[in-house]
Amino acid sequence: MLYGRKSMAEINGGEKSDRILAELRLLDQGKQIVDVEEAQVKVVVFSLSGSYYAFNGEDIREILPPTEISWIPGVPEFLSGLINVRGDVESVIDLRYFLNIVEPSPKKKLIVIAVKNGIRSGILIDDIIDVIDLPITAVKAPLATLDTGIRDFVSGVFDYKSINVTLLDVNNIFEKIKL
Amino acid sequence: MTGVNGAAELRSLRLLLFSEAGVRFGADADLIESICELSPDVEMEKIFRLNEKLKCRHELSADSSLTTLKVRGKKASYLIAVDRIEEIIEIGIDAIRPMPMLVMPYSIKIGIWGVVPRTDGLLLLIDFTRLQAGDNRGDNDGI
User: Buried-most residue among A5, A35, A102, B122 (CB within 10 A)?
Assistant: First the structure.
């Protein structure tokens, strides 16, 4: 690597770091050139309590506007209740209990209908951010420091417009609820 | 017309509609022997408080506004106190939806086995026999 006419010893700390960062950005741009044949996965990116999460697109059937949820006695709090979807009755899951999110969101929530391995349920979210085709290689393993209680529900992480997105595993969420 | 094992097919169900802690329920009206206002003569210990069993969000209401259902149990009749009786209706079996797969294992423990979508909201179907199975007052005391 060349840093102009100055030697490494002559470059002060701030300028050297700027140049290193510029070099790293160039390297990153090179990595983003994607082979058109690379396998991709469609993901649904959504927000919940200020953070970004995503589901695998093939697990999501539809997205519903804010819908009245009927509470049911005797069920755990992570099951918010039931909704009527065109004459069919679906359960509704509150993801906050699985992600250790304590503070309630003031927003009226959307509901995504997820289906996996024969189980179907609504899941509360704040907003849909985007639906994107993601190269499979862009999904990284979750951090080793991730809370073990949450890790069971996380497939991986990826960047979306420089924002960290946690990819959730619908199957593991359903399996946790099943008795 | 007969169904499986020669039993008569069930085409419709008579439901007694009532509400408890803001939740609307329907129970098999054929199991209800009578409906009466709560009488001060009845020992409170003999009354099955639905709110208590269902762990509804609301606090138990004052006794004076309750209505009691006299329900035919397996061994003896027993009393269930509810907030408000609405009406008796007949619905076709095809109007009933099973509880969703994730909910049923929890709800069936307290007798809630199905749901009827209506224009005014969802009606939870409750089986008093299942509910009472978790409380032995009906078996031992009865009326």
Answer: B122
| pTM, entire model | 0.78
What is the SS3 assignment for A23?
A: helix
Q: Which of A89, A177, A178 is closest, CB to CB, to B97?
A: A89
Between the CA of residue B35 and those of A148, A163, B40, B67, B88, what are the distances in Å? 53, 61, 15, 7, 12
CB contact under 8 A, A74 and B106: yes
3-class SS of residue B70: strand
Q: Does the interface predicted TM-score (ipTM) exceed 0.85? A: no
d(C-alpha B125, C-alpha B122), whole Å: 10
Structural element, H or E, at residue B34: strand B32-37
Chain A contact for B85 (CB, 8 A cutoff): no
Query: What order of strands is seen across the sheet that includes strand A88-93?
Result: A60-64, A110-116, A119-125, A88-93, A79-85
